[in-house]
Specification:
Strand content: 5-15%
Helix content: 40-55%
Distance between the termini: 42 Å
Largest sheet: 5 strands, antiparallel
Number of strands: 19
Shape: globular
Radius of gyration: 29 Å
Structural class: alpha+beta
Strand order of the largest sheet: 12-13-19-15-16
Length: 795
């Protein structure tokens, strides 16, 4: 006898209650923000906060978004390269009205809630009942690949994950239900996903949406088969184009600058080995139900160098997904998501399967990215849809006890093997010898994680069987299922939330920083890193950017590849002790984390300065050394030589290089007055440069003295072609000198130079964004009007 169908139960104000469930689930992780604490995601702490604080402060000061970041690696474009954060995404607006740290934390929180809400909306659009839809939303919101992104601080990944169900929902409403307005919603959603700014995650989403659109048009059993496929496919393609147009304000600058970054062809951040780094691995597959098998956070012993997130789906979610896949009622829907899940499982596994080589070779721009494991969110999304279908089958009385017991038994058996130590032996056998000690140290965590899993399976079996037998109905069934999913996933994912005191405390100035801040900008600090003196570095990563102290290096990844070459290679920077490079890039200060007898060319002015327990310091005390001679931001040299690009770095880094006499240019450039043979003028230039005004991305330089021949202005900022030059009101050309420096050829008699970093691609992208956004809004407006007319006609 079939049990009564209880899927139709829905509380009053069901949508409000659903969103309240998602809100409370997120608050269970984020409640420390209510006391002002700062979400300490790894990359947010060491760099993200600095980037966002600079963007917010600059906007408040100048009234527009900065195009240039002068604080890291000799200067680099701010949004013209990947990595500076969500400057065009709506969360950036929060930081204009609230403190940066709170705005960042709030952005994470809101998108965790949004992930649940958009999944709920998708499932309701797919005509699943209220309880299954809320279960699916909660499962997705609290899935590891979504929620654990708070640990590495990867807000862009979280943002795209939260928007993804909305994009799928928009296609269902647009294609299945012929609601034209939703093509406009799709366009805006795609634009936001790209501006998140996790372009790689958005790329994966576009591919998944393409598969979903094809399924909806050709295979969806609920779509009218007599309708032509041309119109929905054309409108979907238009929505994608509009979405790309909305994101053009960021996409065009990024693509125009890739050639100048380590991800350019032949750079340090390209190639097969780079592309397969930080992927998911078959040996870690058990972590979708038992994350402690490969270790969580500091206990991780897998194949990646580090891993701050988890792919944990939830044991009960996996059980429900398995029974949901087996349900006959929605096999068409399950198959549609199955293609997406299979594809992106293969992508996330990267080199663990032969498939990825084909993906790498055929898909555009896949040679310029890594960390394919992030694609797993497009596995989690279908699994949560299937789990919701499983709940629906459960509530409809379509599941026998055996269908529930066998997946519960398998997972329970795995948990039992962990409890008695068998899985520890498996882990020790699978692990590489170099991580054996980490595996051994993880033994207790694996046993406790297995015990947790066993408890969840036992409790879950009770709840699911009680629901299957109709002992739990309506509100009782809903509450039990919600609590079960929440408790399972929360018990794992709460460990990924790390908190620090408010940023005013966390990023407090110390006496060394205050000393440097009293020096008017611009200048630069050399804090040793890489080789050969990295052990002497005092400050970590990009911490000092939050204090408006420009540094020679920092933490970014998309700095100028020419700059990397000049300083001796990305991550190594073996030329950093070169006095000529320190002079050319205006290194006024050096900080060290231990006392030394002397630093050539510098004298000690502070130290030891104590700062125990302050974030980002490599020691309990530090030392500040100041340059003996002025750090010149601008200088004029009388000579220029063109040589092969490959010879410039080693020549300029030579301690004897005459920084005040000659500039080296690549022999592919046409430089007025330059010699093709090594020639060093005997006397300095009679022309003297004075920096009259400086701000990030703009400066004015006064010139005194006169020369009968061209002279060469050198600026301690990196060259990019987007620098705009005027010499006495006449447009000039920015040149690349000494490997990476911004330079201007001065005609005889020049008196004034203005430099401004302004990307033409940004202007083009801004217009494309406005036009595309207008197009999306027209689609929405037209669709709303047509639907209103149809309702009016029916009424």
């Amino acid at each position: 006898m079939t049990a009564p169908d209880t899927t139709s139960w829905i509380p009053r104000r069901g949508n409000w209650i659903a969103w309240t469930v998602f809100l409370l689930a997120a608050l269970s992780i984020f409640y420390p923000m209510l006391t002002g604490q700062f979400l300490a995601g790894d990359d947010q702490v060491i760099a993200g906060y600095s980037f966002r604080e600079f963007g917010a402060a600059y906007f408040k000061t100048y009234g527009h978004i900065p195009q240039w970041n002068p604080f890291l690696f000799g200067g680099l474009p701010f949004f013209g390269v990947i990595g500076h954060g969500d400057i065009f995404y709506p969360t950036a607006w929060l930081r204009w009205v609230v403190p940066t740290g709170f705005g960042m934390t709030l952005g994470f929180f809101l998108h965790v809630v949004l992930a649940g809400g958009t999944m709920y909306g998708l499932l309701r659009t797919l005509r699943l009942a209220w309880i299954p839809a809320v279960v699916g939303g909660l499962a997705y919101e609290m899935s590891g690949i979504v929620l654990s992104q708070i640990s590495p601080g990867h807000d862009g990944k979280l943002f795209v994950s939260a928007l993804a169900p909305l994009a799928f929902m928009a296609l269902v409403r647009a294609i299945r239900y012929r609601q034209i307005a939703w093509y406009g919603v799709l366009a805006i959603t795609i634009g936001l996903a790209i501006l998140s700014p996790q372009v790689q995650m958005a790329y994966y989403l576009l591919v998944a949406l393409g598969l979903w659109a094809l399924w909806l048009v050709f295979l969806d059993p609920e779509r009218d088969r007599t309708r032509s496929p041309v119109t929905p496919l054309a409108l979907a393609a238009l929505a994608v184009m509009l979405g790309l147009g909305i994101a053009a304000i960021q996409l065009l600058p990024i693509f125009s600058h890739i050639a100048y970054t380590p991800r350019a062809a032949g750079g340090d951040s390209v190639g097969w080995e780079y592309a397969i780094g930080y992927s998911f691995h078959i040996k870690e597959f058990l972590t979708v139900i038992l994350p402690q098998f490969n270790g969580v956070l500091e206990h991780y012993w897998g194949q990646n160098a580090i891993k701050s997130h988890t792919e944990y789906l939830g044991a009960i979610v996996v059980v429900l997904a398995i029974v949901g896949i087996g349900g006959a009622r929605r096999r068409g829907l399950l198959a549609g998501f199955g293609a997406i899940a299979l594809l992106f499982l293969l992508v996330s596994l990267a080199a663990d399967t032969p498939f990825y080589k084909l993906w790498y070779e055929l898909m555009p721009n896949m040679k310029n990215v890594r960390a394919a494991g992030m694609a797993f969110y497009l596995v989690a999304l279908p699994v949560c849809v299937w789990a919701a279908c499983g709940v629906e089958s459960l509530l409809k009385g379509e599941l026998s006890r055996n269908k529930l017991l066998w997946p519960l038994g398998v997972i329970g058996g795995i948990a039992l093997l962990g409890v008695i130590g068998v899985l520890q032996g498996v882990a020790e056998t699978m692990a590489a010898p170099q991580v054996r000690q980490v595996v051994l140290a993880n033994a207790d965590a694996l046993r406790m994680g297995s015990m947790r899993l066993l408890v969840i399976v036992v409790v879950g079996a009770g709840v699911l069987l009680a629901t299957q037998r109709q002992r739990l109905r309506g509100a009782a069934a809903a509450g039990a299922l919600f609590a079960l999913i929440f408790a399972d996933n929360w018990s794992v994912l709460q460990a990924f939330a790390k908190w620090l005191p408010p940023t005013a405390v966390t990023y407090a100035d110390d006496e060394i920083i205050r000393t440097m801040q009293r020096t008017p900008l611009p200048f630069r600090l050399l804090d040793p890193t890489g080789q050969p003196t990295g052990q002497f570095g005092l400050y970590q990563h990009s911490i000092l950017m939050a204090h408006e102290v420009p540094v020679v290096f920092g933490y970014h990844g998309m700095e100028s590849r020419f700059y990397d070459e000049v300083f001796g290679g990305k991550g190594a920077w073996v030329n950093q002790l070169s006095p000529s490079l320190q002079a050319l890039w205006a290194a006024k200060y050096i900080t060290l984390n231990q006392p030394v007898d002397s630093v050539p060319g510098y004298h000690l002015i502070k130290g030891p300065v104590s700062f125990p327990n302050l974030l980002g310091r490599n020691a309990a005390a530090g030392f500040l050394w100041e340059r003996d001679t002025p750090a010149e931001w601008v200088r004029v040299v009388p000579g220029a030589v063109t040589v092969a690009d490959s010879l410039i770095a080693s020549t300029v880094a030579d301690p004897g290089y005459p920084v005040d006499r000659v500039a080296l240019y690549p022999d592919t450039a046409v430089i007025a007055g330059a010699s093709s043979t090594p020639t060093v003028p005997a006397e300095p230039s009679p022309v003297t440069a004075t920096l009259a005004h400086w701000e990030p991305g703009a400066m004015s330089i006064d010139l005194s003295g006169a020369a009968s021949m061209p002279a060469y202005l050198l600026v301690a900022e990196n060259w990019y072609p987007d620098w705009k030059v005027t010499i006495d009101g006449v447009a000039g050309v920015p040149e690349r000198a000494n490997g990476a420096m911004l330079s201007v050829v001065l005609p005889p008699g020049a008196k004034h130079v203005d430099l401004r970093f302004a990307m033409d691609s940004y202007v083009t992208g801004k217009w494309l964004m406005l036009l595309s956004l207008a197009g999306a809004l027209v689609l929405i407006g037209f669709g709303v009007r047509e639907r209103s007319r149809a309702r009016h006609a029916d009424g």
